[in-house]
């Protein structure tokens, strides 16, 4: 995507007002007034004269906005938004690359930006722009409801290579994995209700190492934050669905706990209605094969000694039992549970 950066003009005010009235922009830029009017846009042009319009070079239509704030000598914070009619076209990535190059040419030594944990689209822009994830700034920004929210900090230095920045866990090829019977796709915010309903079942939460919050809103937020964990290379969380009709069957996760060893761990759960059909084994095989394709050398998984059904899932997916790890898992009321560890090795090259 090619874009042009230019100063805002008064005749851009209607387009900016329309864009900034969008619920997504209002959600992630809580300082914007709502409803957002033409007068608010004109005031923005006067208050932020150095911010630039991102426009279509052919039509001059406003597609978004990008600007920076000097925080200290040589260091600036970048901010941007994209209008609803211009999203998923590479507009923000193109603007960020162009803008960063311009600022570095002016002598800046560090650019950084912050994104909400739930704002996966903005985090993808940062990755595409060559920005590197540095960590979480806890409670650093107010949300629209007046509370505090954590923000992901991304930065780029003049000597960093152009984007996209390196990722330990790439996206799924084509956005999903399927064997024709089950389809796996990344967990999204809208998967929250189904995920909460399944995770809160006693026979699911009782087997979970981390437990399930008893608040569906928290689980929905966790689903929304899943893309952040994926981009950070921490874990890839996916729903398991029927390839025929998209019915929610459960979830499966790849935890990249040992990057240096090229070892990842599987975890999975199914709804009661989906059990006994081989769906978990199919999902495990799909994720395991994908893990090997992206460079894993060893995939592991574990179950409680009495969880025979899960052990059969792993055996059907080609995993082999390695042994018993005593008191490895947390149990109820402060107890510890033994773990039966399974592993599958990357096939030798032929």
| Low-pLDDT segments | none
Helix content range of the residues, please?
25-40%
| Secondary-structure arrangement, i.e. CATH architecture of the largest domain | 3-Layer(aba) Sandwich
Q: What is the first-to-last residue Cα distance?
A: 41 Å
Number of helices: 11
Beta-strand portion reads 25-35%
Please provide a written account of the structure.
This protein is an alpha+beta fold and 350 residues long. It folds into two domains: 4-156, Gcn5-related N-acetyltransferase (GNAT) (Aminopeptidase); 173-345, 3-Layer(aba) Sandwich (Aminopeptidase), CATH 3.40.630.30. It has helices at 13-20, 23-28, 38-47, 91-105, 120-128, 192-199, 202-205, 216-224, 226-231, 279-293, 308-316; strands spanning 4-7, 52-55, 62-72, 75-82, 110-116, 132-142, 148-156, 177-178, 182-186, 235-242, 248-258, 263-270, 298-303, 320-330, 336-345. The strands form two sheets. An eight-stranded mixed sheet has the order 8-9-10-11-12-13-15-14, sandwiched between helices. It has a seven-stranded mixed sheet with strand order 1-2-3-4-5-7-6, sandwiched between helices. Helix 10 links the parallel strand 12 (263-270) and strand 13 (298-303). Helix 4 packs across helix 5. The longest helix is centred in the N-terminal third of the chain and has 15 residues, at 91-105. The chain is elongated, with a radius of gyration of 23 Å. The two termini are 41 Å apart. The mean pLDDT is 94.
Chart the SSEs and their pairings.
Layout: E1 4-7, H1 13-20, H2 23-28, H3 38-47, E2 52-55, E3 62-72, E4 75-82, H4 91-105, E5 110-116, H5 120-128, E6 132-142, E7 148-156, E8 177-178, E9 182-186, H6 192-199, H7 202-205, H8 216-224, H9 226-231, E10 235-242, E11 248-258, E12 263-270, H10 279-293, E13 298-303, H11 308-316, E14 320-330, E15 336-345
Parallel strand pairs: 4-5, 12-13
Antiparallel strand pairs: 1-2, 2-3, 3-4, 5-7, 6-7, 8-9, 9-10, 10-11, 11-12, 13-15, 14-15
Helix pairs in contact: 1-3, 4-5, 6-8
């Amino acid at each position: 995507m090619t874009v042009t950066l230019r100063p805002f003009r008064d005749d851009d005010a209607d387009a900016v007002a329309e864009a900034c009235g969008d619920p997504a922009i209002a959600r992630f830029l809580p300082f914007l007034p709502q409803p957002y009017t033409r007068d608010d846009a004109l005031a923005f042009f006067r208050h932020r004269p150095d911010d630039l319009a991102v426009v279509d070079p052919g039509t001059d239509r406003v597609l978004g906005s990008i600007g920076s704030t000097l925080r200290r000598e040589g260091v600036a914070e970048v901010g941007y938004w994209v209008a609803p009619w211009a999203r998923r076209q590479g507009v923000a990535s193109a603007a960020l690359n162009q803008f960063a190059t311009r600022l570095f040419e002016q002598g800046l030594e560090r650019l950084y930006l912050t994104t909400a944990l739930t704002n996966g689209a903005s985090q993808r822009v940062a990755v595409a722009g060559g920005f590197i994830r540095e960590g979480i700034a806890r409670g650093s920004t107010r949300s629209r409801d007046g509370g505090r929210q954590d923000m992901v900090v991304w930065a780029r230095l003049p000597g960093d290579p152009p984007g996209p920045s390196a990722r330990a866990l790439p996206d799924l090829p084509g956005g999903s994995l399927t064997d024709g019977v089950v389809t796996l796709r990344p967990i999204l915010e809208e998967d929250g209700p189904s995920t909460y309903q399944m995770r809160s079942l006693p026979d699911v939460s009782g087997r979970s190492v981390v437990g399930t919050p008893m608040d569906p809103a928290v689980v929905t937020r966790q689903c929304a934050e899943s893309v952040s964990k994926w981009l950070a290379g921490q874990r890839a969380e996916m729903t398991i669905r029927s390839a025929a009709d998209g019915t929610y069957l459960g979830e499966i996760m790849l935890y990249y706990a040992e990057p240096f060893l090229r070892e990842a761990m599987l975890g999975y759960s199914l709804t009661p209605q989906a059990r006994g059909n081989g769906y978990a084994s199919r999902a495990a095989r799909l994720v395991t094969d994908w893990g090997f394709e992206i460079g894993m050398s060893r995939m592991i998984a574990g179950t409680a000694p009495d969880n025979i059904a899960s052990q059969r899932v792993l055996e059907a997916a080609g995993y082999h039992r390695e042994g018993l790890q005593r008191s490895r898992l947390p149990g109820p009321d402060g107890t510890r549970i033994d773990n039966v560890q399974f592993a599958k090795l990357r096939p030798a090259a032929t």
